[in-house]
UniProtKB/TrEMBL annotation:
InterPro entries referenced in this protein's UniProt entry, alphabetically: PLC-beta_PH
Name listed for the protein in its UniProt record: Phospholipase C beta 4
Organism: Homo sapiens
Boundaries of every PLC-beta PH domain copy: 12-59
SUPFAM superfamilies reported for this sequence: PH domain-like (SSF50729)
Superkingdom in the source lineage: Eukaryota
Length: 59
């Protein structure tokens, strides 16, 4: 009989990413470069949001 596999998908997200950290964002397909974007990750590491200077946040 096979041993059941316990899949632990949830990884700990560092607090600095949950609170927000500033990174540069680059999009390869359209060659868009946005410096100093505020990135945040939810506590489960599922949603990544960012806010560029003068623009709305995106998911």
């Amino acid at each position: 009989m096979a041993k059941p596999y316990e899949f632990n998908w949830q990884k700990e997200v560092p607090s600095f990413l949950q609170e927000g950290a500033v990174f540069d964002r680059y999009e390869e397909e359209s060659f868009v470069f946005e410096p100093n974007c505020l990135f945040k990750v939810d506590e489960f590491g599922f949603f990544l949001t960012w806010r560029s200077e003068g623009k709305e946040g995106q998911v």
